Amino acid sequence: MKVNIHADQISLVIRLAWEDRTTFEEIKTRTGLAEHEVIDIMRRELKPSSFAMWRKRVAGRVTKHRKLLERRLKSPGRTFSESEEDDIEADEPESNDPR
Question: Does the model's pTM come out above 0.85?
Fold first, then answer.
């Protein structure tokens, strides 16, 4: 399915898709595009090697899918790789405790 959107919107979609902590659900909320439409845009707009690198990156990334992240956080005794820990810590809101 072809998605007709403006160049500035395409730039926004690409930037959001590359961000590790921006979920596909958040992209849909902000742009109205479903995951498969984001993938289509990325395939069309990126060089083949960049698209392959992006797909490989998001395929194993828990933080790109909110449900996977929530499930992973609820798992008792679950250990995380260093990259997953970094992603999860970045997703957690910072404490406003002045201590």
Answer: no
User: Residue 4's closest CA among 46, 33, 43?
Assistant: 33
pLDDT digits (tens, 9 = 90+) for 43-59: 999 999 999 999 998 88
Phi/psi-derived region of residue 77, left when phi > 0, alpha when psi is between -120 and 50, beta in every other case? left
What does residue 38 show for φ and ψ, rounded to 5 degrees? -65, -45
Q: What is the CA radius of gyration of the chain?
A: 15
Annotated domain spans of the chain: 7-71
Check: CB of residue 69 under 8 Å from CB of residue 95. Answer: no
Report d(CA 99, CA 47) in Å as an integer: 48
